[in-house]
Amino acid sequence: MEELYTQSARTGARLSPEERRSALINATLRCIIKEGHAGLSVRKVCQEAGVSAGLLTHHFTGKEELIIEAYRFLTKDIYSRINQSLAQVSEPSALKKLRLFIDVSFRRPVLDKDYLMVWLVFWGLSKQKPAIAVLRNEVNDTVISTLEKLMTATVSELSLEAVNVRLAATGLSALMDGLWLEWSLNSTNFSPDEAAKICQCWVDAFVANALQRLN
Amino acid sequence: MEELYTQSARTGARLSPEERRSALINATLRCIIKEGHAGLSVRKVCQEAGVSAGLLTHHFTGKEELIIEAYRFLTKDIYSRINQSLAQVSEPSALKKLRLFIDVSFRRPVLDKDYLMVWLVFWGLSKQKPAIAVLRNEVNDTVISTLEKLMTATVSELSLEAVNVRLAATGLSALMDGLWLEWSLNSTNFSPDEAAKICQCWVDAFVANALQRLN
DNA sequence: TAAGTTGTTATACAGTCGTACAATAAAAAG
DNA sequence: CTTTTTATTGTACGACTGTATAACAACTTA
User: Fold this and answer.
1) What CA–CA distance (Å, rounded) separates A118 from A98?
2) Mean pLDDT of chain A
3) How many domains does chain B have?
4) What gap in Å lies between CA A71 and CA A67, rounded to an integer?
5) DSSP string of B116-141?
6) Does pLDDT of B13 surpass 90?
7) What is the chain B residue with the closest CA to A138?
8) So what's the pLDDT on residue A12?
9) Alpha carbon A193 to chain centroid distance?
10) Is 60 exceeded by the pLDDT of residue B33?
11) What number of other Cβ atoms are within 10 A of residue B4's Cβ?
């Protein structure tokens, strides 16, 4: 399995600001993966990037900006992984797209244990750093809206009974997050395939008009 | 709303080892609630407990033990909160017990935003400190087993079709965790009551034999 | 080649970190 | 009361924190 956020081959070389900023951001994520919140120190990140500690303030205003930029990169990275996986298949039916979205989410490279520490650390910072909380909420709203649209289209396609699709999508999102979290913390209780099946059951219930309580 | 883990009235007094250990553990949780992982320093915890920093090593072998004991206390505390809420009602039917468990979990004092930081910090430590991971897995298995028993009893009561109850319980647990997490991170998208309703839908689907995919 | 620009290093600074340890104060035991 | 025990304090230690800054080195432009 390919490692997340490997450092570029050239070390010690003089890089352009964009390249160096990117290298430091990747090193930040690698440090969090290795040591959690404890790995989030300027010296450790710079050493991981093969660079002197003082260089950080030359490319970032400080540690704060580095962290926020690392989070911004992470969200974009995962978002692109999901879209890349989805683009491999062209499914006209909204229902099939929905089911594909679930399956893709519980397979690499979207599913990866290394993400656990990263998300936990950033979520833990979101209370003290509002910028992170704002970013997280935006991404989350995007995901739920995506699910909601697919489910609304499914209602039309299959002529289902009216239901609060927003809450149904919220439930599916929470179910996926909960299973992802539990599997990341302890992968011995169920497999990714089983997790995907559990989520598909929520869709089954949705299609079978079994979520009428959400009204 | 009552605050979690308030310090006892007597400060500056000479306490028994058990009392002092308890006070330090409570101060630890309060520090995490206030500042997240950054609040988890010996000096901050001892100041929060109104005590000199050197006292910690007199009652604990070090920071490590304090953290693990704080986690142990936290799990017991929440477990007792759940049981206390459940004990208020005597429901003979397993299905009603199951539904009650859900409702109780999305009401105070089980549902409390202050728990978010605490869990995130401890989960973030679980990779580096195996003792925490072991404890978490034990508690999680207990919860899922509780759900599984209630659901198995429901199958008998209602003569439902055979289904993989373990996976159905895993799904319910994940759904509850995911909704708890999302609500704790951003409580503007849905209410605790709606979260409970979403979970009850999973039970509805279970009762309606809509989870047959789990076989 | 010379001058100017800028990516990079190394050092210094004032804090904070966890913890060991001697001094102190208060309770318990005699 | 005196003696013993022990909860508590204050300090000291080396290591680490984030960042500012001067010196250095590499690239660009003239």
Assistant:
1) 26
2) 94
3) 2
4) 6
5) HHHHHHHHHHHTT-HHHHHHHHHHHH
6) no
7) B186
8) 62
9) 18
10) yes
11) 17
Assess whether B138 and B44 both reside in one domain: no
- Binding-face residues of A in 148-167 toward B, CB within 8 A: 167
Residue B11 has pLDDT above 70, yes or no: no
Phi–psi pair at B179, nearest 5 degrees:
-70, -40
Domain assignment present for B5 = no
A184-200: pLDDT as tens digits:
999 999 999 999 999 99
Collapse the DSSP code of A82 into the 3-class scheme (helix H, G, I; strand E, B; otherwise coil) and give the result. Answer: helix
Mutate to test the interface with B, among A41, A164, A175, A212 (most CBs of B within 10 A): A175
Task: Verify whether the Cβ–Cβ distance B141 to A189 is below 8 Å.
Answer: yes
Q: Considering all nucleic acid strands, name the nucleotide whose C1' atom is nearest to the C-alpha of residue A47.
A: C9
Give the A:B interface size as CB pairs under 8 Å.
Answer: 164
User: Looking at this protein, which amino acid is placed at residue A70?
Assistant: A
The pLDDT of residue B156 is: 97
In percent, the amount of chain B with pLDDT more than 90 equals 86
Residue B189 inside a domain? The answer is: yes
Please say which residue of B35, B59, B90 terminates a domain: B90
* Domain boundaries, position B40: 12-90
What pLDDT does residue A1 have? 45
Cα separation, B164 vs A44, whole angstroms: 47
Does the pLDDT value for residue B12 go beyond 70?
Answer: no
| Rounded distance in angstroms from the CA atom of residue B46 to the C1' atom of nucleotide C18 | 13
The pair of structure tokens assigned to B145 is 């087993």
B37, B55, B90 - which closes a domain: B90
User: In CATH, what number is assigned to the domain containing residue B84?
Assistant: 1.10.10.60
**Identity of residue A118:** V
State whether B79 and B176 are in the same domain: no
Residue A184 included in any domain: yes
Q: Does residue A79 form part of some domain?
A: no
